[in-house]
Prior knowledge:
Layout: H1 2-21, E1 24-33, E2 43-48, E3 53-59, E4 65-71, E5 75-81, E6 88-93, E7 102-106, H2 115-121, E8 124-127, E9 130-134, H3 135-138, H4 146-152, E10 156-158, E11 164-166, E12 169-170, E13 173-176, E14 179-180, H5 187-192, E15 198-204, E16 223-228, E17 236-245, E18 249-259, E19 263-272, H6 281-286, E20 300-303, E21 321-336, E22 339-362, E23 370-395, E24 398-421, E25 424-434, E26 437-448, E27 453-466, E28 469-474, E29 491-515, E30 518-541, E31 544-547, E32 555-574, E33 577-594, E34 597-617, E35 620-626, E36 629-633, H7 635-638, E37 643-646, E38 649-651, E39 660-673, E40 678-690, E41 693-700, E42 703-710, E43 715-727, E44 731-748, E45 751-770, E46 774-788, E47 793-809, E48 813-826, E49 831-844, E50 851-858, E51 865-871, E52 875-882, E53 887-895
Parallel strand pairs: 1-7, 13-16, 20-36, 38-42, 41-44
Antiparallel strand pairs: 1-4, 2-3, 2-5, 5-6, 8-9, 9-15, 10-11, 11-12, 13-14, 15-16, 17-18, 17-53, 18-19, 19-21, 21-22, 22-23, 22-52, 23-24, 24-25, 24-26, 25-28, 26-27, 27-29, 28-29, 29-30, 30-31, 30-32, 32-33, 33-34, 34-35, 35-39, 36-39, 37-38, 39-40, 40-43, 41-42, 43-44, 44-45, 45-46, 46-47, ...
Amino acid sequence: MKKFILITIVSLFCFSFQAQAQKKVPYIGQITDTLGVPLQFANILAMDTVKNSIAAFGVTDPRGNFRLTLQEGKAYKIKISFIGFLPVESMIKAYDNTSAPLSIALRENSKQLGDVEVVTEMPVLIQGDTITYKADVFTKGNERKLGDVLNELPGFEVNEDGQVKVEGQTINKLMVDGKEAFGGDTKLMTKNLPANVVDKVQLLKNFNDVAPLSSVNQSEAMALNIMLKEDKKNILFGDLTAGAGPENRYLGHANAFYYSPKTSLNFIGGANNVGKLTFTMSDYFRFSGGLGGFAGRSGSGLRLSSNNLGFPVAERNNAQELKNETLAFNFNSTPSKSWNISGFAIGSKVNNTLGSVSRRNYILQTGDNQEILTSATNTRSNAGLFKFNTKYTPNPLLQVGYDALVRISDSENITTQNSEFGGINNAIGGVTAQQPWSIQNQLSAFYAADDKNVLSLEASYEYKFQDPLYDLSTSERPFASLITLSDDNPFNILQSRVIKTNNQEAILNYYRILNKTNHINLSVGNVYTEQSMTSDLVQLVNDNEFDLGNPDLINDVDYRFQDYYAGVTLKTKFGRLLFTPSLNLHYYQIENVQRGTTERFDKTLLLPSVSARYKFSSSHSLSFNYNPRAEFTDIQNLARGLIVRSYNSLFGGNPILKNSFYHNLSMNYSNFSMYSFFNLYGGLNYSKRFDDVSNIIQFNGLERVNTPINIDVANETMSGNINADKRFDSFSINFSGRVSRSISNNFIGDILNENVSFQQTYTTGLSTTFFKKLNIDIGVEKTFNRYDGNNISNRFENDKPFIKMDVRFLKGFRLDVDYEYNNYQNKANDIQSDFEILDVELTYRKGKSPWEFRVEGMNLLNTTGIRRDSFSESLISTYEYFIQKRYWLLSIVYDL
């Protein structure tokens, strides 16, 4: 903490020195046409006449006003430009002109300028739903990858996972020179595409890449198109990295990119044992988002259980050792104007070691309710992901497409644990293994018969196979009251499951354009899902399997879910208000068969929804959405035979479960001013869930049995977020806050238990650059977590000041410092923990040489563990995760 305070004082001193050394003055004015009509989005550049570089720039607001901050007394060349008008240039000397603002009238250009010429001269170009940013205007010169470039653009935010948000809205697709890379996913490109190849960034609002639907676009999706510099096209570019360090540390990484008008090729590969993850297990299960899901648009869904089954996701901040290898290849080809084919293949091999000590407080447990659990885990996985896409568009009125997605995995999770509870120590060993795979196919066709009528047909089919196997060994007899085991120590049981899923969907849409501000959408669709599940539990004695002879431990279940639906949506516009009400009628048929008994029910639901969006201006809007949803559960919650989930947890399904019904409301506000470079956005979300699937939990000492039910008490969740940032001439400030409060109900025994979780995180920071050599990001994050059950309450707090710096010095040297300090407190148990993380990297590159040399030290303060907390329906936990110890690495980078 003393180090942080010292760095802060020095930084603020430097900032004060800079502010006094260079006095800045406002330079304001108004841009209009020759008739006096204000021109919004005109660009104003102030060129440094000595360095021949952009010193400042501005964009006019709806009243045509602009504001620049310039160095007093210095001469500048002012360039003013607006698409369709003749540019204006003039020389000025910067003084405070607030008493006599500049007023300039632009004349229309009789010759239409080409888009390329206009965009090149303008830092920001706004044309309808497309905003184009000239990257060099916003960047500082220290950016390494695309994610660093995007973080410098006004209103953009890139998190540590590579997810991109603009004005608070998540980017749905990323393209490079108009071509998708890796299915449009943002992570691989933001972390691997070199920053020095980026020319412009296009933000595409209301994005829709289906040509026949352009006239009836209901999408609020946002996409990015990264435009490359001209000298990076039709050539191979990228970089190669090789590194090594003490204790057999190693790092290898390669990026290679090729873009031409007809073909793009991307290759990303890497292997290391220093925790730099190119691709994680969570990426594998998330990547590309799958296909289908048409019924979700109509307010209904079947929640299929995930494949990953709780495998821990290892990152640098929670793992002791991480080894990973990744190969990723993407291609995109346009053989003709009407035909496009693309696809990718990603392979990942991971070997991670995790360790933790957790203090677990069980809710509504009589007597001593605290357990100390020590865990050591090794996770190994091999995963593959393959996608193929083809699209045929013979003319703007017709588009036909086909997609195929294959996912395969082979994973093993080996855990050694020791549980201390009530004076008893239980030595636990567990192995969880699985080899799931799935294949999805999707066919789509879109046809615009004329300018008033549009048809679309989409269909998908998926087959999914899951085979989780759990091998449990304990020194204490497990589940003695429910499972009869022969005397053997350690006690060893084997839980096997096989789940097969066939899922097919189809939807037909008809769009009728009534006039310029109204159109109607009629749809009919069907979802048919068929699942089977078998499971068995046996005891292992001397590697021999013994049937436990208990039918309550066996499952053989068949499940069918069918949804027929029809819907109508009206899209209408009243001035600046876009109003979209919908009404969907669903008819469900659900059946499950097990133990010679068939449970069947039919149901009809009418689901209304409405969305509204009011645009005060092109960059200022307020939106509201109300989306009720019927949520059905899958076979794993319906199978009544007991399943062993962990050393102290059993799960038995409920064959008579019905659907839950959710009321979901959201409101989002966004206001970004190009005039003042002030960005404010935020949102509120509220969900009230009736007949929610909750659990009856029966405790027997430390052990518990969970049985799902449709609980007759409503569960609620409310969350909100706010983000604000303001850019000044030499620095920027930001503030963000996230608040979430949830109320969930369950039964512990026959007692209704209300769980309340209240989580808050607030972050404020300042970023500045000194003398174009030193960049500093400094801030503090404050987290409050409070968890309450019927007889237990706990509060956790964490204070995290942080600082990131990079400085360029001498000729070709750069030093990066990343430091954070954490003060973690568990209020109920009076536990306090301080820990610091310090990473340092020194690089050298001579001029424009393709060679770069790096020395990096990670976790230099050799912190051994960090604190976290979590909350579930039956326990509150605080963890200490063991992390990678200090290491050094020497690397060489070569730019292709």
